[in-house]
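To whoever picks this up:

The nightly regression suite flagged DNA primase large subunit PriL as changed. Nothing in the input moved, so I suspect the structure step. Input below, exactly as stored in the fixture:
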Amino acid sequence: MQRLHARYPFLAAARESVATEAVDLATVVEQDRAVVDRARQRVITALEDGTVGEPAHEPRIELLSYPVARVLVSMVGERVLVRKYARGEAATAYDRFTADMADTTELKSVSSTGLELTDLLTEFDLQDDVRETPAGDGYRIDVGTYLPLAEDMWEDEWRLVNRPLDGGEVPVDEDELLALLREAIRGRIEDGLPFEVPETIASALEDDADEIRAILADLDLTQDIDTVVPDLFPPCMKALLDQVQKGEHLPHHSRFAITAFLTSIGMSTDEIVDLYRVNSSFGEEMTRYQTDHIRGDSSPTEYSAPACSTMQSYGDCVNKDDLCERIPHPMAYYEKRLEEAEDDDLEDWREDEQSASGD
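Regenerated output under the current build:
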């Protein structure tokens, strides 16, 4: 098994390598603990850190841990886990192939362990859809290819309205193209998850799946909440909600963050749309579409609010308090505050709004 395949297990050639070796996955999970341990680590690290961690030293273990990790994700079956796992794998792949492309040493062995841009374009059948500009200072990508790749990129700069579309092509620089390829990888990894796991394999992995379930529960990303108490919101979400209520313009990533948070705590699309009406640039149709998309009603993915690390990277992490220092996710913060609150303090904001409108 090649090191390249272990480094990039999402490649079609990597799958073919496993098939050629006639690997029996049931035998692997029963007899090869090193593979299972690395697979479990891939999933847990994706949940906690947004990557899949350090690779195993032995290429065989690293490569086989990938299909076993997909099995574990499927056994747990939570959409939030599928999403976070796929993003963790894609983030690790991105770090690796950008490092490959930045390595200009004469001694590097690209043919055996690294990927070049042309390799990735070919892998995803994009070689005819992406063209280098005549001046060699960037690339142009067919709009029909760009849109699905950029669909989950919520920053303003990825919106088609902010791109100088010309002749059905979207201009991107090299960094942006590599980010789009990361999304292609994420889509491939997420595709088909979760799937039905044969009992012979599932029984051998039940303890490992239970450990992942416990960690997922501790992160408080899958609990159902239907209580809206803004006083208990994490500081970041309080600040964003305050801006929404003042009618201030929010960057796209900030709007996504507060909308995803509000959907996660039980607010309906109608309720969220009403919040945005005070904005001078309010458009009901677009606001409703974006909210339904985040909720998963008009898309295959239900989005959760960004983790604290993501909020920090976009400058949305503000007014941190002591609890923020111990909590990795805004939802975990809110659930903790709900747990600690007295019942008398848990008056749902929506009930107050209804009372006010009734008066």
